[in-house]
Amino acid sequence: MLVNRRTFLTSTTIGTAGLLAAPRVQAQAAAPALENTLVVRTTGGVFEQSLKRNFFDPFTKATGVRVIPVAASDADMQAKAAAMQTAGRVEWDIISPQMSELANLSHLLVDLGDCASIPNMTTALPGTCGRYGVLYLVGAQVLAYDTRAYKDRPPQTWMDFWNVKDFPGRRALSNSGGPFATIVSALVADGVTRDKLFPLDLDRAFRKLDEIRPHIATWWRTGSQSSSMWESDDIAMALMWSGQAYATKKTGFPLAWSYEDTLANFGAWAILKNCPHPNAARAFINFYLGSAEGGAGFARDVGYATPNTAAAALMTPAERSELITTPEIMAKLIDMDPAWVQQNRARTLERWKEWISA
């Protein structure tokens, strides 16, 4: 089953009574001998710190496998993965693309089949298993803003983001590799309704991006940069990963955000073909899916939900109400069309590279 926003609205959703009665996590089955190291791509910053605290360190404690995180933008991740396969020297084990990108990257990834080799899949949300990767988080690419800049009338929509007259201030957009959230935001700002977004009208989107370009002070490439830019670059408003926004706010920065018509993020863990530590990679993914404590801690840190169905029972009602997987928030999000992305990714990226470098 393809994971999307409707999967979460029509099936068991984090924060509902169904999850509070979730079954116990299945014990990890006997596994092949594990390598002593695991290399995992992350986006860096507070996001990586939360993964380390809630999953990497507990996995090391349980198995003895040392986890080495490597921070990289989406574009750098995909370029590096392809280059390593071409050179025949794969140095990473696990990467973290979007679920909608797995088909495009399938030639680089281990085929997981029906995920029978991952025992804790039985306690994960519906749609977690993908042939070339498993769901590891649910988030969105939100419209974030400095509350000090917009005390009386905060921005709520992408039309507000493009409205520099009524909402002045320095803006930031993503150049982390996949430009789809930026393109979708431009089309929504131009009046395209969510049911008319796909196929994406690239000509219309780039005309709209031409309008806002003079007001973009920062094109951020990593999660860490998207947090630090608020003070270093004096940003007032930005497109931002919801988890990074959540974590930035927890540092004390006066940040708020809107989920209105924002693109949903369904992040995946995927194992690279010919990786140096394949057994450790499968063991980590199984550990990740089976960790209710890690899922709850991760949600408290960065606001992302993991697929573990028992995590919600470890959170307070107030904490569960803030999760992105609540029906009220999920209803505001826009689904990516994976089939369109698969067919049009190359030409969209080429168009983006030409535009951003012009």
Task: Look at the structure and give the CATH class of the largest domain.
Answer: Alpha Beta
CATH-assigned fold name of the largest domain:
D-Maltodextrin-Binding Protein, domain 2
Structural class: alpha/beta
**Second rung of CATH, namely the architecture of the largest domain:** 3-Layer(aba) Sandwich
Report the principal-axis shape: globular
Radius of gyration over C-alpha positions, nearest whole angstrom: 20 Å
How many domain regions? 2
- Taken as a percent bin, the fraction of beta residues is 15-25%
Quaternary state reads single chain
Instruction: Give unreliable regions as ranges.
Output: 9-29
Protein name: ABC transporter substrate-binding protein
Family: Belongs to the bacterial solute-binding protein 1 family.
InterPro entries: SBP, TAT_signal
Organism: Teichococcus vastitatis
